[in-house]
């Protein structure tokens, strides 16, 4: 399940035990339900919600396709019942890992492709794949080879738009890697900098989540924190760890 809000309307999306993906939309001020328990896909899975530029988007997967349904804050009833857009058609149907975050007037998303690579792209206001032809946003960029079952997540810097992606790289052997996709990626100059790995992880890493935090000692200075589970395939002795990456980056520390 997931949630997002524009401050005017909010959306809740979940994979329902009756099958598929359902959503409810409420008025953020009054709490009144505007759309209730609406099925938007009969076979979808893995819902995510994101709000940007005054609109809500519900993303979900169907086999190899990642879909996006735009819900307008001015007419959520009509747009909730609209047609979802196929964003990409090469997400892995088994390891259907993806994440999406607001990125200025767009949304950034990363996913595990069907050839086990990390791909990063941008989504426009209507849910379409961003490209240099529709606003100067870089199209899909392919990065590292991912380890099956590892998961991934995005953290976007709150002021300059730089994006950190936490993922599990097959080449470095089940270790968490944090890559940097600078703001220049929006102009087509995306590049990966795998500047830190959690070297102690010799067993499976999974369930990665991350966000930027402002340092307690210096206002306006942020660092990315990625929490993850290690030894995920063990019967016991699972551990949750935190990897910290200090922007730009200049240092990192495993906790």
Structure description:
There is one protein chain. This protein is mainly beta and 255 residues long. Helices cover 2% and strands 51% of the residues. The chain is built from one helix and 20 strands. The protein has one helix spanning 76-80; strands at residues 2-5, 9-15, 21-27, 33-41, 45-52, 55-62, 65-72, 85-88, 98-103, 106-112, 117-123, 141-145, 152-156, 163-169, 175-181, 196-197, 206-214, 222-230, 239-246, 251-254. The strands form five sheets. The chain has a four-stranded antiparallel beta sheet with strand order 1-2-3-4. The chain has a four-stranded antiparallel beta sheet with strand order 5-6-7-8. A hairpin with an 8-residue loop joins β18 and β19 (239-246). The chain is globular and about 45 Å long. The chain starts with a strand and ends with a strand. 41% of the residues are buried. Mean pLDDT is 78; it is low at 181-202 and 248-255.
Helices and strands in order, then pairings?
Elements: E1 2-5, E2 9-15, E3 21-27, E4 33-41, E5 45-52, E6 55-62, E7 65-72, H1 76-80, E8 85-88, E9 98-103, E10 106-112, E11 117-123, E12 141-145, E13 152-156, E14 163-169, E15 175-181, E16 196-197, E17 206-214, E18 222-230, E19 239-246, E20 251-254
Antiparallel strand pairs: 1-2, 2-3, 3-4, 5-6, 6-7, 7-8, 9-10, 10-11, 11-12, 13-14, 14-15, 15-16, 17-18, 18-19, 19-20
The run of helices and strands is EEEEEEEHEEEEEEEEEEEEE
Strand order of the largest sheet: 1-2-3-4
- E-strand count: 20
Strand residue percentage: over 45%
C-alpha end-to-end distance: 28 Å
Largest sheet: 4 strands, antiparallel
The gyration radius over C-alpha positions equals 18 Å
On the 0 to 100 scale, the average pLDDT is: 78
Tally of alpha and pi helices: 1
Shape: globular
Structural class: mainly beta
Q: Detail the poorly predicted runs.
A: 181-202, 248-255
Helix percent reads under 10%
């Amino acid at each position: 399940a997931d949630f997002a809000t524009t401050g005017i309307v909010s959306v809740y999306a979940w994979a329902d035990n009756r099958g598929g993906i359902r959503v409810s939309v409420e008025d953020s001020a009054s709490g009144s339900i505007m759309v209730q328990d609406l099925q938007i896909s009969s076979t979808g899975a893995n819902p995510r919600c994101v709000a940007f530029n005054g609109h809500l988007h519900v993303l979900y997967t169907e086999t190899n396709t990642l879909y996006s349904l735009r819900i307008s804050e001015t007419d959520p009833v009509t747009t909730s019942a609209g047609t979802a857009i196929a964003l990409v058609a090469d997400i892995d149907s088994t390891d259907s890992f993806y994440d999406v975050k607001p990125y200025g007037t767009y949304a950034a998303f990363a996913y595990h492709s069907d050839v086990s690579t990390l791909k990063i792209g941008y989504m426009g206001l209507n849910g379409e794949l961003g490209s240099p032809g529709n606003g100067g946003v870089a199209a899909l960029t392919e990065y590292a080879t991912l380890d099956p079952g590892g998961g991934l997540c995005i953290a976007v810097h709150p002021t300059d738009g730089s994006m950190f992606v936490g993922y599990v790289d097959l080449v470095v052997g089940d270790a968490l890697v944090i890559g940097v996709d600078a703001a220049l990626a929006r102009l087509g100059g995306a590049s990966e900098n795998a500047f830190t790995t959690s070297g102690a992880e010799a067993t499976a890493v999974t369930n990665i989540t991350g966000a930027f935090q402002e340092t307690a000692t210096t206002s306006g200075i942020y660092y990315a924190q990625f929490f993850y589970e290690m030894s995920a395939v063990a019967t016991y002795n699972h551990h949750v760890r935190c990897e910290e990456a200090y922007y730009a980056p200049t240092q990192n520390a495993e906790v």
